[in-house]
Amino acid sequence: MLTKLSSLQSGTLGELLAVAKLNTLGYAAYISPEGAPGHDIIVVVDGQAKSIEVKTRQFVNRASEITRWPVDMNAKGNADFFIFIELDLRTLSPTFYLLTNSQARETYKNYSGGGNCTLPM
C-alpha cells in the first residue's frame, strides 16, 4: 500500500522539484541555505533576486484530498512568491501553483496557532 512521505521528505522533494521546474523554464533558481529565514528558494528574475516559499502537499488517490495549505505568514510572509505543489504519489507528478505574495495573502485564513492558504482554482 502506498503511504505518504514525511513532512520533511515531501518538503525537500517539493523544493527540489520547484528548482528543477524554474530552471527548465529558463530561470536561475537555487535552494536557499538551510535555515534561511522566510523562504526556500531564490530565483533570478530580470536580474533581481526574488524569494520563494514552497509548500508541498501530497495525495494518494485524488487531488481533492488536499483541502488546505498550512502557512505561517509571521515567519514566511515576506517571500516574494509562493509555490504550492500538489504531489501525486502514485506517479510522483507535481502540479505547480505560483502566487505572488499579495495573492497568497488574499487566500490566507489566520487561525489561533497557525493559518492556511486556499488556492483559487
Chain-wise SSE layout:
Elements: H1 7-24, E1 28-31, E2 41-45, E3 48-59, E4 69-70, H2 73-76, E5 81-88, E6 93-100, H3 101-107, E7 108-111, E8 114-117
Parallel strand pairs: 3-5
Antiparallel strand pairs: 1-2, 2-3, 4-8, 5-6, 7-8
Structure explained in plain terms:
With 121 residues, this protein is an alpha+beta fold. It has a single domain (7-117), classed as Trna Endonuclease, Chain: A, domain 1. It has helices spanning 7-24, 73-76, 101-107; strands spanning 28-31, 41-45, 48-59, 69-70, 81-88, 93-100, 108-111, 114-117. Strands 1-2-3-5-6 form a 5-stranded mixed beta sheet. The chain has a 3-stranded antiparallel beta sheet with strand order 4-8-7. It is globular.
Descriptors:
Trna Endonuclease, Chain: A, domain 1; 5-stranded mixed beta sheet; alpha+beta; 121 residues
Concise description?
With 121 residues, the chain is an alpha+beta fold.
Strand order of the largest sheet: 1-2-3-5-6
* First-last Cα distance: 30 Å
Indicate the CATH topology. Trna Endonuclease, Chain: A, domain 1
How many β-strands, per DSSP? Answer: 8
Structural class: alpha+beta
Poorly predicted runs:
none
Name given to the CATH architecture: 3-Layer(aba) Sandwich
**CATH hierarchy class name:** Alpha Beta
Number of domains: 1
| Global mean pLDDT | 88
- Kindly state the percentage of residues in helix: 10-25%
* Count of helical stretches: 3
The backbone outline, from C-alpha atoms, is globular
N-to-C order of helices and strands? HEEEEHEEHEE
Major sheet details: 5 strands, mixed
Our estimate of the beta-strand percent is 35-45%
Rounded to the nearest angstrom, the radius of gyration is 14 Å
